[in-house]
Amino acid sequence: MALPSHAQEAAAASTAKQLDTVIVTGRAGTGVRTKAETSYSVTNIEEEALRLQAPTSVTEAMKSVPGFWVEASGGEASGNIRARGVPVDGFGSVQLLEDGVPIQHDPALGYLNGDQVFRLDETIERIEVVRGGPSSAFYSNAPAGAINFVPRRVGDTPEALAKLTVGDDGLVRTDFWYGQPFGDGWKLGMGGFFRVEDGVRDPGFRGNKGGQFRVSLGREFDRGSFDFDIKRLDDSVVFYTGIPMRTYADGEIRSVPGFDGNHGTVAGPETAFVRMTTADGEDYLFDNTRGTEVKRTQFTAKFEFSPVEGWTLRDRLRYNDTETQRNGVFPNSLMSAASFLGQASGALAGVPGATALQLRYVTTPGQVYDTAWQNGNGLIILGGLRGVTMPVTELMNDLQSSHRFEFSEQSHDVTLGYYYAHIEEDFGRYSSNALLDVQDNARLLDLVAVDASGNVLGKITDHGIWRYGYEWENASGEQTTHAFYLDDEWQITDAFRLDAGVRWEKMQTEGRVEKRKQVNLGTPATSQVWTGTGEFATYDDSFDKLGWTVGANWQFGGQSGLFARYTSTNRLPSLGNYVTNAAATPIIQTMALGEFGYKFSSPLFDLFATAFWTRYENVGFTNTRVGLDGIVVNEARYADTRTLGLELEGAWRPVDWFDLGLTATVQDPQYDGLTYTDSAGKLHDYDGNQLIRVPKTSVRLVPGLNLLGNRLRLQLAYERQGERFVDTANSVRLPAYDVFNFSSRFEFNEHLSVYGYIDNLDNSLGLTEGNPRQGELQSGDAGANTFIARPLLGRSYRLALMYRF
């Protein structure tokens, strides 16, 4: 079927946008490199595609990237990405960049992920995602990829954008951006956002509030340019943890009776403000309305200069000063109230004349908890009220010198770089255990001892607190990293190129962790309070390692090409490994990654297919379980993993009014050699088991309609995620799930547009994770009918009005 002429023009433009898009991530050099010329897998999320997807978080934005399994069910920050079968939580396998510079040197810096300190807004124009490839040669802590958020650039004419977004969860948000050239080559840009929002899972208070503002100033001059950017983030977002779920007789997993699985959360008004007693008798105010609160000032300077033809010198510097308070209500364990009372029966001995234990509500002490059917479930949660404080300062600088050597009809584009980073961090933590009932916005419970007539003779808990100070930490440290890298792009013919890179990196860290002791303040709730001794354990350690990569690209036609790459890389330990344990003995994690890809683009369809192989060595595990007496940590284990997979990314445009986008990943992620004998002498053999929370299949289809002369765009994103497992033993299954998201755009004219979104259209209860506080080697939830897990956020609606001028 022949395409109409206007459809051909639109399709041709789309093709050009695919293969002719300039890629700035994962390479250096003197010239530009297009997607057709890259020797690695790269996904572009362009401006309008990003706006239609309208991700609510950094993690959510990665749903359209093949090879990535993402978890965004925790809210706007604190997501997880697992890339190409690498079983590392948070952002431990990929680096986050803004304008080519790390947002945070280590994006998995122990309780501080990179997505916690970065927010998407309209100052970001597009995203480039490198999967594997040369990312580890150019960036630290990027073994499986790099995600680059590319800011909007000021053009040669003034332009501006303003957008208002409202949502059914109390969301009101404004975004803006303004760019103005002036004077002799100067360009000024400014923008940001501000929003308030209760939250899709309403905690009973305003969950998300704050925003950010940035100003950039730059100038182009003969043979060079410089840019300076200042950004201030002052924002708080709620952190959603797991909720009580149950496997019913029909085999389906839904929330327990009395709890809304789509929109409910354990956190609520009664746990919003809790005064905790510390070992010195002082109060510690736990304020969950702050959630993950980030106050960050970031300075970025970029300089580029070409002193003579063929030579380019670049320097990129970033300094950030970040204060983070990370508060959350964690459902450490779930049990029936009757079971809890049985386990706590020993407390009766401390109350003369008492004959029984009861649970009563803190705010209504005359109300006795019905252990058989309270809230329709008779369950309680032993919850952790955790407060973590982390001030961090970082200085990072990346200096590059590139030169293009011409030899007859061949060329070498060689780059030599030096990267420096210095990080200083303080770390403090104080947590208490609370007794909670099981309902939306759970209420605090007191454990009381009563006589035969039901009269209260004594309280075991203190205003719902079962145990004060079950966690306590006080630490500080610093880290310095030096890295040298060399890269060569050898253009052998017009169609064939070889790339090679090597990176040597060394980190040195030192610091101190205060030693702990337990004190008894004379009540059951204060009988085992952790605190500091005033003495400090110190550490002073260093690691270094060499990594390398080699790739080839053969562009044998204007529409087709092949590439192949092999990378031997690593991830060095970081300051985050020591913040709670000065005696930590982290090891260098090493990886080997191979990929072979095919790329094709035409007016009718695009197809990018990549076969990949990943071997990850020395993945660390620590079995952590939380019981009535707090945290029990078993000894750490290490294992290797291997994953063989295929990534597909494509688009089909049969007619001008319809198109179909596709991303898919099929893989076999396995543990290799994971066997160990536990302290009881029992042998555990998990060799060949499926990696934690990594699906074997992942598919995303996005059919779209372009109507009314392309003024109206309607699209439906369908996602299918295969089954996963909570632990290495594969004893707790997370079933496969489907989810639909709808988005639309209508252009009134060239200036005014309206966007509409329905997230989780089918109200899917797809489980993204289980309860990590019940162990990741062998989960304590194995065989349980009722358990803690975290499903997708429920259905929500948003509407946005955007004006460009």
UniProtKB/TrEMBL annotation:
GO MF terms held by the record: siderophore uptake transmembrane transporter activity
Keyword entries, A-Z: Cell outer membrane, Ion transport, Iron, Iron transport, Membrane, Receptor, Signal, TonB box, Transmembrane, Transmembrane beta strand, Transport
Cellular component terms per the entry's GO annotation: cell outer membrane
Record carries keyword Phosphoprotein: no
Topology of this chain in the membrane: Multi-pass membrane protein
Similarity comment: family membership: Belongs to the TonB-dependent receptor family.
Protein's name in the database: TonB-dependent receptor
UniProt source species: Pseudoxanthomonas helianthi
